[in-house]
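Record format v2
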Amino acid sequence: MSRKLPALTQDSRSFWQGGAKGQLLIHFCTQCQRYFHPPGPICPTCGNDGVGPKAVSGRGTIATFTINHQQWNPNLKVPYIVAMIELEEQLGLRLVSNITGTAPSDIRIGQSVQVRFEAIEDVWIPLFEVRQDV
Amino acid sequence: MFDRILEKDVAISGIGMSEVGRPSPLSAMKLTTDACLQAIADAGLSKDDIDGVACWPGDNNNGDAFSPVGPNALISTLGLKVNWFGGGYEGPGPLAGIINGAMAIAAGFCNHVLVFRTITESTKRQTDKTASALNNKTIGRDTSFFWQWYTPFDVMSAINLAAMYAQRHMFEYGTKEEQLAQIALTCRANAQVNPNAVFRTPLSMDEYMSSRMISSPLRLFDCDVHCDASTAIILSRSDLAKDGPNQPIRIEAIGSALHQPWSWDQINLTGMAAIDAAKMMWARTDYKPSDVGNAQLYDGFSIFTLIWLEALGLCPPGEAGNFIEGGQRIARDGELPINTNGGQLSGGRTHGLGYVHEACTQLWGRAGERQINPHQVAVAASGGGPLAGSLLLVKD
Ligand SMILES: [Zn+2]
């Protein structure tokens, strides 16, 4: 794999590097007590600037997914699973990620998943695995 | 909610389209001037009458095949004298040029705005098969505010995101692959009677179902077909349009709203931004979805057409799969003909303005073998994910 890596900014750094401590960090507003993503310097709901990264459980469900079959470049190992994960902390709080460790034919919407991290250079990519304990 | 609905004073007075090549031997600028001069003549105008130019997205200063010609280059090439011009990607999707141009007329800046859209993705593919892959577009780290949340996960194309909307639609509403197929099959049937369409050979359900899966559940035939083409639309002040050779097609209402994050994953997965744009458009008119005689709905990927059908209220929410099943309702002789030129799936990825061009072609009764029954009202809608814009067009 040779993943495209994101440029890190003051706002995005926590999300991409939280995995160094095994944490999925999502921006949180202390005033309206809501998470928001992608991260930014101000709460898009209430305008409060009392916001910052907060560790979430890393658990969620598969809101939707696709199995990519197209060989977009020679480095890709197809097929692979792209999914939107809805985090358990808040309705509609979603991340795009990959599901690893499960055959594409066994993936279903609604499955419970748990984050894991893949470290590349200074970035910890949050990937998800289907939970076997539920 | 809205008490100044000034787009009603703007009308489409002429249309033009270059050859649609796969690829075309013509330069991007030649395609553009072909389309623009044709549209100006169609409106009964000369280039000296054009006092505004609008485009989406413009050339971003790099001449990329996605949009090789912007307003600046066109103004210089045609020697236009304009009072207002504008381009740029940020806006309510591929119809943003029309929407901006209509605003310029409504605001009194211009009398006649030339709106155009040129694309040369087919020529680009001759030398670079993966030209459209997101990860291949930039060297080094992804600095895009939005794509950076997707490309690290090998989201290589908007198809990966569109496919996830399709999967969700199937999960929530029971939409079947054979129903989704009807968008591709209907477009192909329409393209067969459009001499300018890219793919004109018959397409069967069996061929669709056995076609290559690109990103499940979307197959090869759920993806629009790249081409080299330019489309141009002339917008005129309604009172001036009355002097032209064509019966004016009024812009009855515009939908350009975005009431959700500009994001592919934080928005409503089965409504996209289309629900915001459509709601706004209907709030600016007394016409109803049942008045629509032809609907030209974005089919960059087939699932977008289903979502637009529901968002625009052309069928009940969640019912698009059942609505298009069998294809009869959306056929040229059905209750709601869609994408009558073959859409982008078979007609070619003219990207946005092709829908407006075809809506007008049908309203003016110029569609030849593919002409549908006479009607006065059309809708053109374009965009997927957070991009969404719609137009209600009326020939009084
Ligand atoms: Zn807040």
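The two ends of chain B are 25 Å apart (CA to CA).
The longest strand of chain B covers residues 228-237.
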